[in-house]
Amino acid sequence: MRSVWQLFYDILWHPFLAGWLLWQLLGRKNKEMRRAAAERLAIYPPFSWKTRPVIWFHASSLGEVLSLIPLMQKLREKFPHSQVLSVSTVRGEGVARQKSGAEAVLYLPFDISYLVKRALQRIAPDMVVIFETEIWPNLFWQCARRHVPLVVVSGRISPRSFRRYRLARPFFASVLRAAYFLMQSEEDARRIGEMGAPAERVQVCGDIKFDGLRTQLDDKDIAWLHNTFAMSHPLLVAGSTHAGEEEAIFATYATLKSEWPDLSLILAPRHLQRLKDVTALLDARALPYRLRSTLLSPEPASIIILDTYGELGKIYYLADVVFVGGTLVPVGGHNIAEPAALGKPVLFGPHIANCQKQASVFLEQKGAAMVYSTDELTVRVRELLADPARAMRMGERARDVVIANQGAMARCLDELARLAKR
Fold it and tell me: Phi, psi (5° rounding) for residue 373?
C-alpha cells in the first residue's frame, strides 16, 4: 500500500513532467535526443541477460561514471554477472558507452512510481548500486517493495545537503529504511544515520575515487599526449571550471605570462555549452587560443580550451601546476584526487562542500593549497613556478595521500559480492 509520503512525492513530480512533455512535443529533436527522452520514460528495448545476477549501477555525471567504472570492472572479476549502467547526463552517457563494458547503458527514468516500476520490470535487476549519494525516493521504495537490495557505494552527504535533509527526516526515514549504505567517512555515516538509515545497514568503507586513480600513465597514453599537444612549459592546467573562475584563470595567466614568456594554459570548462562564454573572455583580452577539437597534429599553442570529453584525466599528466574548478565559486568542488594521483601540485578555492573530506586530507599533508581570490591564485601559481623543487615536493605529497587512502574499493567489493549472492 502506498504511503502518504509516496503519494505526495509523486504528485510533486507531475507539473515538471507535464512541462517536459510539452517541451518534447514542441522542440525539434534528433534521433539520439528522442531515444534519451524515451528512456527517461522507462521505454527501453527488450533485454535478454545471458548471465545472472543482473546488477544495475547508477552514476549521474561524467566524473561519477569514470569513478564507478573501475569498481564495475573489479566486481566482474569477482563473479560472473550482467551489468546495466544508468546515467543522468549526456557527457556521462557518452563515456559510459565507450568505456564501461556494461551490457546496457541507459538514462535513469524520472523518479515517478509507475516509471520506476516499469524500469525495474524491464531490467529485472538482482541488485541496484548507486554511486555516492543520489537519493531517488521512488527507486528506493520500489526496490524495497521487490526485495531488491539497493546499495549506496562511496556515499557522502555534504553539510549543505544534510541541513536540508534533516528538516525532512520522517520522509527520508521512510526512503532509507531498506537500503544499504557504504559511506566514505564516519561523518557521512553519522549524517545518513541521522537522516533515518538503520545503523545496522550503514558501514564506513572509504572513498573509492582514490582506488580508481592511476598514479602513472602507461607508455601508450604518454605517447598520445606528446603526439597531440605541443605545449611549452611551464604549463598550467585548469580543470572543471565554472562561470566566474575562467576570469580568474585568464587574469593569472596574463599576469604571469610577462614573467614566464613560455607559460602555457590548458583550460577545461565543466560544461561545454558555456564554450562561447569562455572564448569570449579570451577574445576580450586578445589572448590567442586553440580549441582541442581543431588540433589535427601537435601544433604549438599557448592556450588550449578543452572542448572534448574524457581527456582531462590524462592531460593533468602534462601540468606543472593544476587548478581544480568549482571551488572559487559556490559550486562545491570537483575531483581533487585525480591530478594529485599523478603527482601534481593542486590549487583549489574555498567552496569544497562536495569534496571536503578529500580536500582536508590533502591540505593537512601539504599536498594541495587553498586560494581565496584571483590575486591569491596568481601568487600561489607564481610561487610554484618559481620553485620547481617545491612544486615537485608538493606533488609527491599529493600522490602519497592518494596511495595511503586506497583500499576502499576492496571493502566495497566484498560487501557487494556478499549482498549479490544472498
Answer: -160, 170
Q: How far apart are CA 320 and CA 395, in angstroms?
A: 9
Average pLDDT of the residues in 354-379: 92
Q: Where are the beta strands (DSSP E) in 137-275?
A: 150-155, 180-183, 202-204, 235-241, 264-269
Nearest residue to 134 via CA among 190, 87, 84, 72: 87
List the domain range (segments joined by +) for residue 132.
Answer: 25-211+406-420
Residues 6+ apart with CB under 8 A from 65: 59, 85, 87, 92, 95, 96, 99, 100
349 with 371: CB under 8 angstroms?
yes
The answer to whether the beta carbons of residues 415 and 182 sit under 8 Å apart is yes
Task: Tell whether 352 is covered by a domain.
Answer: yes
Residues 45 and 85 in one domain: yes
Residues 285, 357 within the same domain: yes
Q: Cα separation of 195 and 193, whole Å? A: 5
CB 93 within 8 A of CB 84: no
CA distances from 74 to 98, 157, 179, 205, 260 (A): 17, 25, 22, 16, 44
pLDDT at 166: 87
Q: What is the DSSP letter of 110?
A: P
Query: Residues 366, 310: contact at Cβ < 8 Å?
Result: no
Strands 321-324 and 303-305: unpaired
Please give the share of the chain, as a percent, with pLDDT higher than 90: 76
10: buried, middle or exposed (CB in 10 Å: 19+, 13-18, 0-12)? middle
Report the 10 Å Cβ neighbour count for 315. 24
Q: Give the single-character DSSP code of 349.
A: -
- Sheet strands side by side (includes 202-204): 104-107, 82-87, 54-58, 127-131, 150-155, 180-183, 202-204
**Does residue 349 sit in the same domain as residue 279?**
yes
Q: What are the cell numbers at 38? A: 524515451
> Structurally, how many domains does the chain consist of?
2
Residue 130's φ and ψ, nearest 5 degrees, are -110, 130
- 271, burial (CB in 10 Å: exposed 0-12, middle 13-18, buried 19+): middle
What's this model's pTM, rounded to 2 decimal places?
0.77
Cell for 120?
A: 525495474
pLDDT in tens, 229-268: 988 999 999 999 999 999 999 999 999 999 999 999 999 9
Q: Which of 273, 219, 285 is nearest to 248 (CA)?
A: 285
- Give the residue numbers marked as catalytic: 64
